[in-house]
Amino acid sequence: MRAGRWRRAGATAAALLLVTSVAGSCQVGPAPPGPAEIRTGPPPWDAPRDGVSYIDKAGFERLPLDFSGPSPYTVRIAVSVDGKAVQVPAGVGVDRVRAEQAAVHTHSADGLVYVEAKTTAERPTLQQFFTLWGVKYDGSCLADACTTLTVTANGKPVPWDAELTSNTQFQITATH
Asked: Between residues 68 and 175, which one has the greater pLDDT?
């Protein structure tokens, strides 16, 4: 009878050890984000799924989803490639899995961009917005469209990395 008890005790201990090691290796919370990959292919371009990687790459602080900053404002961004409108998607600058957002982000797919910086001294740029979106954007290219790049704010030419100022309508036009 003693041998039976020891076998059962050994089996119970082994089972507990197995459960503990399996449970101990399970991750609590979301998986670590993947790297921010800047896309260079043709549109459409969805909002990145792992938003925090792009928030970090764009140089923004990760903020809680309910943060609105001391002086929030909006800008509108319209994009076209080879004469065809490109939709600015909802969720740019937002990571719903981790409940974090950048000071610059979108809620809907209508080109309305919210700027909710922690201080009024922060001056986010178009370049940072496109990094949040995960799309290559520099002084000569939008993704793989590198023949011409034109940027206007309220109908007037501005530098490609212009600051996102309150109530401005940006138009970014690129061609292959």
From this structure: 175
The helix/strand/coil state of 131 is helix
CB-based contacts of 163, cutoff 8 Å, min separation 6: 123, 124, 125
- Token pair in block for residue 100: 């974090």
Using CA atoms of 129, 131, 133, 135 in order, give the dihedral in degrees to the nearest 10. Answer: 120
Q: Are strands 73-81 and 169-175 parallel, antiparallel or unpaired?
A: parallel
Asked if 137 contacts 43 with a C-beta cutoff of 8 angstroms, the reply is no
Residue 9, both tokens? 């005790």
> Quick check: pTM over 0.90?
no
Question: Cα(51)–Cα(16) distance, rounded to whole angstroms?
Answer: 38
Lowest mean per-residue pLDDT among 1-10, 26-35, 109-118, 131-140: 1-10
Mean pLDDT of the chain: 89
- In tens, the pLDDT along 53-80 reads 999 999 999 999 999 889 999 999 999 9
Q: HEC profile for 16-61?
A: HHHHHHHHHHCCCCCCCCCCCCCECCCCCCCCCCCHHHHHHHCCCC
